[in-house]
Design a protein that fits this description.
Blueprint lengths: L1 H13 L9 H18 L2 H12 L9 H5 L1 H22 L5 H13 L6 H18 L7 H6 L4 H9 L5 H30 L6 H19 L16 H21 L21 H5 L1 H21 L6 H12 L7 H18 L7 H9 L4 H7 L1 H22 L6 H32 L1
Helix pairs in contact: 2-5, 3-5, 5-6, 6-15, 7-9, 7-10, 9-10, 10-11, 11-20, 12-14, 14-15, 15-17, 16-17, 16-18, 16-19, 17-19, 18-19, 19-20
Length: 437
């Protein structure tokens, strides 16, 4: 009887997961669950009003949609945007592997504090035009298309934050998003060499540079560029339990598919995580799902250990950490970075570790996980500490127009510290060779 049940469970999970790919049905199902959850926790009239308010929000960093539209409206926003992106992926991607999984969960995460249907779709259109112009298959541009919505606030801020009539603000805002979606692909490919793949949020770094340019131009012309890093912390126990269950479900799905065992999980430790690391292809779907569930749990645990809570922006951090568990992150290269961020925050009084900005630095700072994976945990702690200092000062450069501010900061940290670590590593290896000889 037990064997029959086990086979049925396996068959059910195989509807969502292949051995080296994620099936679109998984994303469609997750999106539907988020929408249904949203509909269940907020009254219909309030939800509709809240969702409309989200769409009309300037949405620059940090705009917590829990505060703007309510918890239910925010979950509906996440679900609807995920459905749109899944449809786009389903039509264009031959196979859904680790990087795309990371991109979808990252977009989901940022749909809690900055992305919505209105300000994200123009980037997909820009990608389509770039595909035609450069004669590049759109399947090769999917990651850039999804991550490029880091600059979604540009669309919203131009449309709703410049006191323009809607018939002027809307087309200008949309055209700006389309233009960014077009140019970000060649620029992002170029910047990958800047940090040598040790910053997982490469598009975040690219978006930071583009955001800095846009912000500078707007300031020269004295156009309003708002930047607010003091959101109210609005959360609910039901949100916490939702994501605890979500993380547990990911882990259990992988655990079951892995024959109810941890067999092979330590293999993930062998990966530094340096771009481009596709855990789904390298280690298989079961181990990747287990890794995602574990990292989601670690992220949630960190938030509550330091006294924080899962308000909208922090939820985005948790989902991004879980998503990149398919694209470079694992417990062994993430924990040193988080430790370094925390130690710097309490040692130098940069920020209260349980504040929104401090929690985001710890969670999104794991963009530097490959440094810990490649050079060791001590280097990871140093990189995390450095990131805590740098990210505290980079947001004003782009005025919050780049939602991936930690990717922007991480690019500079990686570009600075990696050459130094390379020299140290070479000297240590040289001394070791001399000692042995």
């Amino acid at each position: 009887m037990g064997i029959i049940i086990n086979r049925q469970v396996h068959r059910f999970l195989e509807l969502f997961f292949g051995k080296t790919e994620i099936k679109p049905l998984f994303f469609y199902t997750v999106a539907t669950v988020f929408i249904l959850f949203g509909l269940s926790v907020q009254a219909p009239n309030s939800l509709i009003k809240g969702y409309w308010t989200i769409l009309l929000s300037p949405s620059n960093l940090i705009t917590d949609y829990f505060e703007v539209g309510g918890i239910g409206a925010t979950f509906v926003n996440v679900g609807t945007l995920t459905l749109a992106n899944t449809f786009f992926i389903h039509r264009t991607a031959p196979k859904i592997t680790g990087p795309i999984l990371a991109a979808v969960l990252t977009v989901m995460g940022f749909s809690f504090f900055g992305k919505n249907l209105y300000n994200s779709i123009p980037f997909l259109i820009g990608t389509y035009f770039y595909s035609k112009f450069s004669d590049t298959p759109i399947a090769n541009l999917i990651l850039g298309a999804l991550f490029s919505s880091a600059l979604s606030p540009v669309v919203s801020l131009i449309t709703f934050g410049q006191d323009l009539p809607i018939y002027m603000g809307m087309p200008i805002g949309i055209l700006a998003g389309v233009a960014i979606g077009f140019v970000i692909h060649p620029v992002s490919a170029s910047f990958l060499r800047f940090h040598q793949g040790f910053n997982l949020y490469n598009t975040g770094f690219t978006a930071g540079v583009i955001g800095l340019v846009i912000t500078s131009i707007m300031r020269v012309f004295e156009l309003p560029v708002t930047y607010d890093i003091q959101p109210k912390q609005l959360s609910s126990p039901i949100v916490t339990w939702f994501f605890i269950i979500f993380s547990l479900a990911l882990f259990l799905a992988g655990f079951i598919l892995n024959d109810y065992s941890f067999k092979g999980f330590t293999k993930i430790r062998q990966s530094s995580g340096q771009l481009i690391s596709d855990f789904v292809i390298e280690f298989g779907t079961p181990l990747t799902l287990m890794n995602m569930g574990i990292l989601g749990g670690i992220a949630i645990a960190y938030v509550y250990v330091v006294g924080g809570q899962l308000e909208g922006a922090v939820v985005g951090g948790v989902l991004t950490v879980a998503g990149f568990a398919a694209f470079g992150k694992h417990p062994f290269n993430v924990i040193p970075i988080m430790t370094g961020v925390y130690l710097m925050q309490i040692a130098m009084h940069i920020d209260n570790p349980n504040s929104t900005s401090a929690l985001l630095a710890a969670l999104f700072g794991t963009t530097l996980a490959p440094i810990a994976g490649h050079y060791g945990w001590k280097a990871g702690i140093i990189a995390g500490a450095m990131h805590a200092a740098v990210v505290h000062n980079t947001g004003t450069a782009h005025a919050g127009l780049n939602l991936y501010n930690n990717g922007f900061s991480g690019g500079f940290v990686a570009a600075f510290i990696v050459p130094i670590l390379d020299v140290i590593k070479e000297r240590i290896e040289e001394h070791e060779r001399i000692r042995k000889s």
